[in-house]
Every structure is written in structure tokens, then in C-alpha cells.
Specification:
6-stranded parallel sheet; 3-stranded antiparallel sheet
């Protein structure tokens, strides 16, 4: 496995891969790698791509500095996960190279509107501008590629798809199914902050998603089901919504078809996300 920290080496590696007739499979991460990330590496490898993973803890997408400081940094463990799961090149760019003016505000940013304004964006101002800006830079340095993202961060994928379309990046976005633990909890680096009791309690989130996937005839009933299950487990609901798959606008009771159940809830202060597809039947 190649290991780089400089943008120049990273760019040259990706260019050489394409020059040899192969395709780059980019997997952007913030580190603290787990089986969910491993599934992205494996998907890229199974597609025949040369797997280029990045680890960069992006400070400009954190609206609360303490969250950034508390994020786990486990470089040696991350390298072991990458190596064991078929990563061909691991890039750990420095903060100085990615954002030369940090901690001063970065003069050039990608500003998102629409899909970024609701759900996570409503409670975390500037978050998706930070996400879009860093992903834009990752794509610019890497060049034409496939880029792999997990569906757990469903809104993030919608934001990135919008940016790729609007700015005409030469990239194919590949989404991968949510990876779950034995209790159904979506894998996340945040799960390590849960006590054993809270980890068990957190399964209410995936249970609420599953309840929303049962056959019903209106969005408000689905919302009620999800929120009832979350409240019964003592979860702090940030939102529990049924939304359009593309625009992320809330579904209303006159609509039928395919939508997304999407939840963010806090378990003893730990913010957890989950989502899943739902189908609302047309009323007879």
C-alpha cells in the first residue's frame, strides 16, 4: 500500500493510474475506520478500481470546535484497516496543504443551498458548505474517478450529487448500503462513545426505521410511528422525517411512492444518524 501526505504525490499517483488504463476508486474518510469504511474499500475493489482512500479530519465542517477536537485520531489503526481491506493508496493530507489559511477562514469555498438547508443543515449551520468544499478539493486533486460513499450519510450524498452535477465534476458517485452491527445499529465512529447500555438503547433508531418501512398510506403515520419508538426508548429526537429522495423535502399525506425515512437522534448526548427507503401506497 502506497502512503502519501502531499497533494503533489497524491495527484501524480492518480494520474499514473489513469495513464495505465485503470480507474481510480476514491473513498474519502475522516479516519476512525470501521467495517462500514471497509465495505466501501471492498466495493471499489470489486468494481476493479485502484482504491485510493483519503483520511482527512476536516475542521471547516464542524460547527462546534469541541466536536472536532473530540473526534478520534487513530492513524496506526486506520492504516491497518486500509491495508487489510485492499486499499492500494492511502493519502493523509496535512491540514496545512488542505486549508493553508486555517484557522483563519478559507477564502474560497463551495456554498450550497436547497438540499443542504434542511435536516442536518438546519441545526448545523455551515456544515454542508464545509463538506462540499472539502469534497470538491478531494475530487479536484484526484481527477476523474469513481467516488464511494455510504448511505448512512444520506443527506451528504444528496449534497455531493448536487455539487457534482452543478460544477460538472468528472466523477461517478457510487453509494453503498449501510453496514450494521449485530443489534442493527448503523456503524459509525460515534458508536465508540456509547456505553454498553446506551449502545443497546440506540437500537431504537434502526427499529424506528424498520417500523416506517411497514405498509401504510400516509407520511404522517410513518413520522408518528418513528417518534413513538424513539421517545419510548428515551432518545432525544433531533428529527424523524419522511422526505423526497432527491430534494429531501418532507412528504405530505397526499403523496404516494418511494421516499426516505431519515432520523437523527441523541443517545446520552451522542448524535446518531440512520435512514432507509420507504414506500407509501396510494390511497384507494
Amino acid at each position: 500500500m502506497e502512503l502519501f501526505s502531499s497533494i503533489a504525490d497524491w495527484r501524480n499517483y492518480a494520474s499514473e493510474v489513469r495513464a495505465s488504463g485503470r480507474r481510480v476508486g476514491l473513498v474519502p474518510t475522516m479516519g476512525a475506520l470501521h467495517e462500514g469504511h471497509a465495505s466501501l474499500f471492498e466495493k471499489a475493489k470489486s468494481n476493479g478500481d485502484v482504491v485510493l482512500a483519503t483520511i482527512f479530519l476536516n475542521p471547516i465542517q464542524f460547527s462546534v470546535k469541541s466536536d472536532y477536537e473530540a473526534y478520534p485520531r487513530v492513524a496506526e489503526a486506520d492504516r491497518a484497516v486500509a491495508l487489510a481491506n485492499g486499499v492500494d493508496c492511502l493519502v493523509e493530507p496535512t491540514l496545512e496543504e488542505m486549508w493553508p489559511d486555517y484557522p483563519e477562514a478559507t477564502p474560497t469555498k463551495v456554498t450550497m443551498k436547497g438540499v443542504s438547508d434542511t435536516l442536518e443543515g438546519e441545526g448545523r449551520p455551515g456544515h454542508f458548505n464545509g463538506v462540499a468544499s472539502v469534497v470538491a478539493k478531494l475530487l479536484t486533486v484526484t481527477g476523474p474517478c469513481r467516488a464511494y460513499f455510504g448511505e448512512k450519510d444520506f443527506q451528504q450524498i444528496a449534497v455531493i450529487r448536487q455539487m457534482v452535477r452543478d460544477l460538472a465534476f468528472d466523477v461517478e458517485i457510487v453509494t453503498c448500503a449501510i453496514k450494521r452491527d449485530a443489534e442493527g445499529l448503523a456503524l459509525s465512529s460515534r458508536n465508540a462513545r456509547l456505553s454498553p447500555e446506551d449502545h443497546t438503547r440506540a437500537k431504537c433508531i434502526s427499529q424506528a426505521i424498520a417500523a416506517a418501512q411497514a405498509e401504510v398510506e400516509c407520511a404522517s403515520e410513518l413520522r408518528h410511528r418513528m417518534r413513538t419508538i424513539l421517545r419510548a426508548a428515551g432518545a432525544e429526537i433531533v428529527y424523524a422525517e419522511i422526505v423526497d429522495n432527491v430534494t429531501l423535502r418532507p412528504a405530505d399525506d397526499s403523496q404516494a411512492g418511494d421516499f426516505r425515512a431519515i432520523i437523527t437522534a441523541k443517545i446520552d448526548g451522542v448524535r446518531l444518524l440512520d435512514n432507509g427507503p420507504v414506500t407509501i401506497k396510494a390511497k384507494n
